Structures are given as C-alpha cells and as structure tokens.
Amino acid sequence: RHQHVALLHRRDQRRAVHALLDWIEAGVEQLNHPLLDRIGGKALGIVGMGRIGQAVARRARAFGLSIHYHNRHRLPEQIEAELGATFHVDLDTMLGQIDILTIHTPLNDASRDLIDARRIGLLGRHVYLINASRGGIVDEEAMIDALESGRLAGAGLDVWRFEPQIDPRLLALPNVVMTPHMGSATFEGRQATGEKVITNIRFWADGHRPPDQVLEGWM
Which range marks the domain in which residue 19 is found? Predict the structure, then answer.
C-alpha cells in the first residue's frame, strides 16, 4: 500500500505528461507548454504514522520531501530521527505547512470526516490530497467542491466514500486520479495474505490464540 501511495502521485504527474504529448502532436511552441510540479523540496504531511505511514515516509525522503506527521502518539526519538520527521500535536497546524497530504489512519468514530470542509480549507490551493486508507475519513462532498473550484490542486484516491459506487463528478475531474481500492494488489501481497490466513488457522487448530484477531467493535 505504501508503494501505491507513490503511484497515485506519479499518476497525476503522468496525466500531465500525456497532456504535454498532446501539445507536441498539436505543434504547440515550447515556451507555451504547461509546467509540472517538482516533488523534491516539497513538504509531505502524513496522517497516521503506523507501519504504512512510516513506510511512506521512508520512500518520500528518497524523493527529497520533508516529512511532517500527525498521530495519536508521538514516535520514539530514534524513529523520528531516522525518518527526519516533524511531529505535529495539532493537525490543523500541520495542514497549513504542507504541499501533499496522505492519509493512513484507520476509519473509526474519531477519524470519520477527520478531513472535513474546515480542514480542507486550511490546505493551500497547491496541495494534493492522497487517500489510500478509507473513504469515510475525508468529507467527499467538501473535497469535490474544493477540487472543482480550484481550492485544492488535485487528489489521488484508492478509496471513496460509498464504495463500490463512485461519485460521477470525481470521474469527470481532470485533477483526480483513481484506482479501485487495490493498494495491496500485488502478487507478493496476496501471497502474504494467504500465508497469514493459514498461520492463523494452524494456531487455532493447535489450541492457541491466533495472532491476528478481529475484535468486537472493529467490524
């Protein structure tokens, strides 16, 4: 899933590249072509700094991004130093300092509509929003309004609010790229999932507590 986050942002860049190819075929002069965003030097804001959030941070550093994060608990100093990450107790403060927002927190009562209309309004017009977590964390109506009006530069979405139904306005927006909730859809990921299922069954069959449980209230 952490690799898919990078893919969502690169796909937005790829859409711009295809637009450039169209300009070339149309014979547009070089000085009149649209410009792309340089990712190096940008500030990445991560909401939810668990296993996936940290994996995203490690890869983002390789692209020259500075790392900011908001989490229920602050990471140990050693991990912060390794990631070069700046912790923000207040989410609102972080939102005003970043260029890309990526979401990696589970959906629960506390996180539902966490990125609402007010918080979307705190993001700069140049900011890209990436959500490969759960659609309910973002107020989709407010996000669409911001994307349509230009108050948000773009979005990369692997999830949406009413899956499998997709709001047709998202499909029509040129500044949105979407994938069908496939962040873990790799050969290796599917194999690891199957092996984990087998491991849990073996633990249960041997009379032991399975290592991966769905507790009451999680569903």
Answer: 2-200
